[in-house]
Specification:
By secondary structure, the protein is an alpha+beta fold. The chain is about 45% helix and about 25% strand. Helix 1 (about 1-40) packs antiparallel against helix 2 (about 115-145). It starts with a helix and ends in a 9-residue tail after the last helix.
């Protein structure tokens, strides 16, 4: 009986984890969509790629991630330079490539490249994990439910 109780709690934990993943996914989706809808657009150029060693990562990585450095001018003509949020062994954009930059007038330093993958890859990866956790949790709980005894006629 105690084993059933532990498995039932494990199922409940899976459902709770899936709920947290769904909330995080919805938050990121809403945040990115809000940014997309309320931002200004400008043409920018990738001026270089740079290595960034993450202070939290270990130094055993053979190749540090490379990020594109992007320059653009906002609506007032002020020039801004920012680094991409996503990097890898090879950068997403090459030096000299033209990109569309999204920014808010109130905070032009917080700019992003308009790229579907950069804005929606995280939620697209989180949602299936949430669904799997939810499905397993509900399956575990359903298999442990005891049917009510039937009354004989």
């Amino acid at each position: 009986m105690t084993n059933d109780r532990a498995v039932k709690w494990a199922g409940m934990l899976m459902v709770i984890v899936s709920g947290v993943l769904i909330v995080v996914t919805l938050y990121v989706l809403a945040s990115n969509t809000w940014f997309l809808l309320t931002s200004e657009s400008a043409e920018g150029e990738v001026i270089s790629t740079q290595n960034q060693q993450d202070s939290a990562s270990n130094d055993s990585s053979p190749v540090p991630p490379r990020y594109g450095l992007v320059r653009y001018r906002d609506a007032s003509g002020t020039e801004h330079v920012f680094s991409e949020d996503i990097g890898g062994e090879s950068p997403l954009y090459e030096k000299g490539e033209q990109v569309t930059v999204l920014y808010h007038l109130a905070d032009p330093e917080n700019a992003r490249i308009r790229d579907f993958m950069a804005m929606y890859l995280g939620p697209a990866l989180l949602l299936p994990f949430a669904a799997v956790f939810w499905f397993i949790g509900m399956l575990v709980r359903a298999t442990l439910e005891k049917p009510a005894p039937r009354e004989s006629d």
